[in-house]
Each structure stands twice: as structure tokens, then as C-alpha cells.
Write a structure and sequence with these properties.
267 residues; Rossmann fold; 4-stranded antiparallel beta sheet; globular
């Protein structure tokens, strides 16, 4: 069963104000296993996106390592890795006037191939299109297939990006602010969809989130990045409390319990 594992991970970035290197994460050792939903929480600039990109193999760590299964993530080819890991970026530029269907079908590209002796790339087949249509229906965009992506609202474009990830259907999804541009209804609906797929099909989600209450609702595990290299990780119900949140975000929180669930409100 393939998961993601970090060993003594060290992440640093340049700090132009001080002219030095800022440590975002120091000595992080943990396992993200299939069947789990994880949330990465922390203030702006604490290293959430940097950690996500490192887990995806898009950025080398400054120390330690990341394993995908039993191999260092750098040992996987790009195509192999794309069949195991899907990434939803915080911002994705829409440059070309592609249709929604053309965009969503790019999720199948890791599974297409062109042999050295073939003159052209293999095209998507009927099964690929069936998967794309199912993904569009899942995010509430059935009927949008022929629309140009550039004509959609920000929230609709975000759902196209989520549909592309669903069409790719990797065992591991790394999602950077998956709820950005979405209204409240679709924030809940999209997180519920993604979280439920983990439990139904033995997948893994790692979400970067800013909404603490959405994190506690849909994720069982979490990583708190405090921005000074320190961190906490484990079951959210064990590592998350008002004191931890006040240290994390440098503001006071009030905890409200409703029907056995905790809600955190900044005050």
C-alpha cells in the first residue's frame, strides 16, 4: 500500500528582509497513509505550500527526505509519479481557450503513451471520456463540457480543476486551498466528495486549508506549521485546542461545542 513518508524533513526559504535562510520546517518525520485525510494548517508564510510541493516531488527538501512507498520520491519517473500523485495547485493559469472537456481530459495524460516508433501521441478513448463526464457530474458541471474555460467564473474554474483531478484518479491527492473561489455550498460539497473517496477506495488526501472548522469536519489528521521551524502533527482532536490555535495564528480563539463537535471562533 503506497503512502508518503517524511524522514527528518528540513524546509528552508530565503528571507530577503534578514538576508538569511528562514527555516519553515525542521526534523519532520511522519507517515501519510492511504485511507487518511490530512490537513496542513498554519499562518501565511509558514510553509504549507512549500511542504505540499515537497511531498509531491516538485521541490527538493533542504534536508532529510520524502519516500513514495518504499522509494525516494526522486527515484520515480514523472509519469510513474503522476499515476500515484495528483496535485491541485493554489493558483492555475488558464491561458489557452480550451473547452471544459479538453481541460478535464488532461487528467488522463499520465495513462496515455507514445512509443518511440509511433508517429503520434495516443489519444483519449471512450473510457477516458466516460471518466471525464462522470467527474464533471460529480462537481456539478454536467452540461459544461463544450464551454470555454475562460468564460467560467472563478468558482466554476476551480471545480473544473477538481474534476480534472478526479479524472486523473490518483491514489494520493495533494490539494492546496481546494476551496478557494468556492461559495459555502460548494466548499462543503467538494470537501465531502474528496474526503468520502478516501474512505471508499483506500486513497489519501492532504489538504492545505485556512478554515479550521472545515479541517476538523473533514480531516482526521493534521500538521500544524508554526512558521519558526516547529510543528505538531497527529490526530486533529489530540493536537488542536485553543492554546495551539492561538500560538499558530497569534490571535485568541473561543471553542464552542455543538452536538459533540468543536467549533473554533477567533475573538
Amino acid at each position: 500500500m503506497t503512502g508518503l513518508h517524511t524522514q527528518a524533513l528540513l524546509l528552508q526559504v530565503s528571507d530577503p528582509r534578514a538576508g538569511t535562510r528562514k527555516t519553515l520546517c525542521r526534523n519532520l518525520t511522519l507517515s501519510f497513509n492511504r485511507g487518511e485525510n490530512w490537513a496542513i494548517l498554519g499562518p501565511n508564510g509558514s510553509g504549507k505550500t512549500t511542504l505540499l510541493h515537497t511531498l509531491a516531488g516538485l521541490r527538493p527538501p533542504d534536508g532529510g527526505g520524502v519516500r513514495l512507498g518504499e522509494r525516494d520520491i526522486s527515484a520515480w519517473s514523472h509519469r510513474e509519479r503522476a499515476r500515484q500523485i495528483g496535485v491541485l495547485f493554489q493558483q492555475q493559469e488558464t491561458v489557452f481557450p480550451a473547452t471544459v472537456m479538453e481541460t478535464v481530459l488532461t487528467g488522463r495524460h499520465p495513462y496515455l503513451s507514445a512509443s518511440p516508433w509511433q508517429a503520434i501521441w495516443q489519444w483519449e478513448d471512450a473510457e477516458d471520456r466516460r471518466r471525464a463526464r462522470a467527474a464533471l457530474a460529480a462537481v456539478g458541471l454536467d452540461g459544461f463540457a463544450r464551454r470555454l474555460v475562460t468564460t467560467l467564473s472563478g468558482g466554476e474554474q476551480r471545480r473544473v480543476e477538481l474534476a480534472t483531478l478526479l479524472t486523473q484518479d490518483p491514489p494520493i491527492c495533494l490539494l492546496d486551498e481546494a476551496t478557494s473561489h468556492l461559495d459555502l455550498k460548494h466548499q462543503v460539497a467538494m470537501l465531502a466528495l474528496l474526503a468520502s473517496r478516501v474512505h471508499e477506495a483506500d486513497r489519501l488526501n492532504v489538504f492545505v486549508l485556512h478554515d479550521i472548522n472545515l479541517a476538523t469536519r473533514f480531516c482526521e489528521y493534521g500538521v500544524l506549521l508554526f512558521g519558526d521551524g516547529s510543528h505538531r502533527h497527529g490526530r486533529l482532536q489530540e493536537i488542536l485546542d485553543a492554546d495551539a490555535l492561538e500560538r499558530l495564528y497569534d490571535c485568541r480563539f473561543r471553542r464552542i461545542t455543538d452536538d459533540g463537535h468543536s467549533i473554533y471562533i477567533p475573538v
